[in-house]
Amino acid sequence: MGKKYPCMEVDLNKITHNTRFIVSKCKEKGIDVFGVTKVFCANIPIVKAMIKGGIVGVADARIKNLIKMQELPIPKVLLRIPEISEAYNVIKYSDISFNSEYKTIEKLSEVAAKQGSIHKIILMVDLGDLREGIWENNIVAVTKKIMKLSNIDVIGIGTNLTCYGGIIPNDDNLGELVNIKNMLKNEVGLDFKIISGGNSSSLYKVFDGTIPKEINNLRIGEAIVLGRETAYGKHIEGCYCDAFTIKGEIVEIKQKPSVPIGTIGKDAFGNIPHFEDKGIMKRAIVALGRQDVNIDGMFPYDKNIEILGASSDHLILDVTNSYKEYNVGDVIDFNVDYGCLLRAMTSEYVNKYYK
Ligand SMILES: *Cc1c(COP(=O)(O)O)cnc(C)c1O
């Protein structure tokens, strides 16, 4: 049977290759990798391709995704600070969770006691990016309190950077993570097993050899799936950046003007559109829209195609300058960025195929 469009085609060998590449670079520096699965909704074939590449745990922001992965024989890590209302499922479905709130950890301990288990946590500290994490000056006091909880095992400390505030990991902030680890060892007697130094934005310090030697864990998503480090947005040499391809089918192709005819009001999203007059052009409509993709984050493999715009279900392309003679029924391929990948993997209208 033929493919149904729109679709996302995933090259699983490229995912495994990228994972192996990054895992081995990290291993040289004594760092283990949690593979982050949230951007592709923990789609099982992709998760398996990552596991084949040598990650030591799967990490996701959402419990629903951890539930999907239950059958896989690998530790499950909950990345997003848990909701108190989800405590039961956090204990049931995650082996390790990242935390920053005493009240939540207290609840996790209570639920773990009922389920007869000890729950492992990694304490998140905020080093300036201003997303999650304990604010440094009260970390000793909070940690002392947490250590009194009967069913919690604090196995590590971690930080997250370049997510909200765009703060780049460097010797100052990662050095501070190491200082906090040492301070907690001296003042509280905790010797952490895991020092988790961030996400794909910390990789450049692995590659240039400047990552502090105490850091022994990273959580990596984007670098594996898109072959890109995220501190400077650079392609990682040796990794594929086209493991994911979004494909849509042409449903109309006609010569039309480049400027709409009549009085211009608002488009489908309430914006007033502007048009440059390029004369008559060859325009293709692809059955793909904002309900499936983020059009600012998709790039035709045919470099002579220009994306003109999109509504919810229609993507409009200028194919005038393409060397290829496109017809109705032809399929157009696009590379994606992180935001577009997220949208497409989340859209139930986008079929998923693996090769
Ligand atoms: C999403 C996320 C990651 C992975 O980030 P990438 O940039 O995709 O590598 C790591 N840690 C936390 C806490 C996250 O939320």
Automatic annotation (TrEMBL):
Pfam families linked: Ala_racemase_N (PF01168)
Molecular function as annotated in GO: alanine racemase activity; pyridoxal phosphate binding
Record has Isomerase as a keyword: yes
Domain of life the protein comes from: Bacteria
GO annotations of cellular component type: cytosol
Cofactor: pyridoxal 5'-phosphate
Keywords: Isomerase, Pyridoxal phosphate
Domain Alanine racemase N-terminal span(s) in chain numbering: 10-225
PANTHER family: ALANINE RACEMASE, LYSINE RACEMASE
Protein name: Alanine racemase N-terminal domain-containing protein
Organism, scientific name: Clostridium tepidiprofundi DSM 19306
